[in-house]
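I hope you will forgive my troubling you with a question about protein structure. The full record is reproduced below for your convenience:

——
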Amino acid sequence: MNLPAKYAKNTKKKSLLFFAFFACFAGQIFLASCSSNEQKPTSNMSAAREAKKERKELRDAIKKIEPFFQPMGKPEAYDWLGSHNEPGQTFDEYLDTDPTKPTKERQKIYVLPLGTFTPQQKKVIETASAYLSVFYDLPVEELPGKAIPQKLGAKDGRFNEYLKTRQVRTGFIMDSLLKPDLPKDAAALIAFTNEDLYPDETMSFVFGQASFADRVGVWSLRRLQMQADGQKFLQRTLKIAAHETGHMFSMWHCTKYECVMSGTNHIAETDRRPIDACPECMAKIAWLSDIEPATRYKNLAEFCRKNGLLKRSGRIRPQGRGFASVAEARTK
């Protein structure tokens, strides 16, 4: 999972991811002005108190669910943090960045298919779209598919000798195919493709990439199906989809816990990650989506029950615990 370009630039010098709270006579003018001046501070103070209360409640929620999550351990060979020196991002640090979040005018996540897909892939994408809606508590709409041009410029495509397949530069997809068609009411636009992806000549591939500023991102199914049955393919896709969408809402890579927003360098590392956000990232999602954490966990637990995820994998929650257990802990 590649960090968006804006953040990557900041961290390269050092060496490398739910919603918001959100004409009269002179005497009459004077009186109206006095009234307005008296009311505005009261209104602002009230809003400030509400925001302060909300942040305190989310900080309390972080503490309540910490026991359910596994702290980030020492990187294994070839892991993301072994080669990327990243500071991570706490809930408070996230708020300090003035993050991108859904607004009254932009409250929908759009999903765009790029290319052709098998029936199994289409089903996985449909399930991933539903997961995004529950994960971020936002409506999701799939757009009509479009094709990636067969002929690409020298800087926008290359051939991967290992997979014997074409690779497409993520920047080309985001700048040329996604940004021009970004719907006005889009909180985020994420595309999926069967093409293998790379960000630049310094990296051999990425699972996906997204932009902080432009609200667009892309992920690839190409490597997610390698050595995977249907359930593993689904889980990998859910992780990449949630991860890249998180970047579009200004969430950096997580380094404190094993988290869906943690960076991954290879498919085995992706498999070790949970499909859920850690306590710090959960608070970011609850804040940007304006949803109660307990409600969000209950919705996620129900989604996993419907899709057979709670029975199949202990990685749904670190240490094998389900969303339902976290929801119960959050409400007491």
User: Anything to note?
Assistant: The CA atoms of residues 18 and 286 lie 5 Å apart. The chain has one domain: 5-330.
